[in-house]
Amino acid sequence: MPAHRTRTRTVDCDCTTFQRHHGTVHTYTLHRCGCVPCRQAAVRDARERRTASRTIPIGPTLDRLELLAQRGVTLRQIALYTGRAYPTLVGLHRPSAQRVGRDLAAEVASIPIPPEKPYRECAAVGCHRIHRARGLCQMHLQRLERRAASAQRAQRAAA
């Protein structure tokens, strides 16, 4: 014997931001609509919630974040790109984090990886951003060339 239906009344969506049509979970749950399409949408959603896992292992997502960090993309930039909160991305690096939501993993995977640039660490205060943007600045390139040349001269003199 089928269960007794408690919702039979049809209620239209009166949201001010976006008017939704019948046959969505929104109208069933929020507006308590009981029409056939809304009830079917609620059953479909409940079935999907039971069968589909919404999380996946965190490993590939962390690998992608690490690669992006190596290429100079910060977590704040990733947060802006994905539209997620910065603390959400920081929380992925906690040892207790074992799984991540499918949607967040897909957003992180969709971030384009920037090309690798010739970058070396430098103690000079103003050059750090220049190195990340264009590689070594001219001053430091010349300094490295002079050091290499003097090291070669010292090796020749010692031999």
Textual characterization of the structure:
This protein has 159 residues and is mainly alpha-helical. It has three domains: 1-52, no CATH class; 55-109, no CATH class; 127-158, no CATH class. 53% of the residues lie in helices and 4% in strands. It contains eight helices and two strands, in the order H-H-E-H-H-H-E-H-H-H. The chain has a two-stranded antiparallel ribbon with strand order 1-2. The longest helix has 21 residues, at 138-158. It starts with 24 loop residues before the first helix and ends with a helix.
Brief overview, please?
The protein is mainly alpha-helical and 159 residues long. The chain is 53% helix and 4% strand. It has 3 domains: 1-52, no CATH class; 55-109, no CATH class; 127-158, no CATH class.
Supply the key terms.
8 helices, 53% helix, mainly alpha, two-stranded antiparallel sheet, 159 residues
Uncertain runs with pLDDT below 50, 5 residues or more? Answer: none
Q: Radius of gyration, Cα only, in angstroms?
A: 28 Å
Sheet with most strands: strand arrangement = 1-2
Into how many domains do the coordinates divide? Answer: 3
Q: DSSP strand (E) fraction?
A: under 5%
What is the β-strand count?
2
Span between termini: 99 Å
What fraction, in percent, of the residue positions are helical? Answer: 40-55%
**Average of per-residue pLDDT values:** 78
Q: What structural category characterises the helix and strand content?
A: mainly alpha
Q: What does the main sheet amount to?
A: 2 strands, antiparallel
Order of helices and strands: HHEHHHEHHH
Q: Which term fits the overall shape?
A: elongated
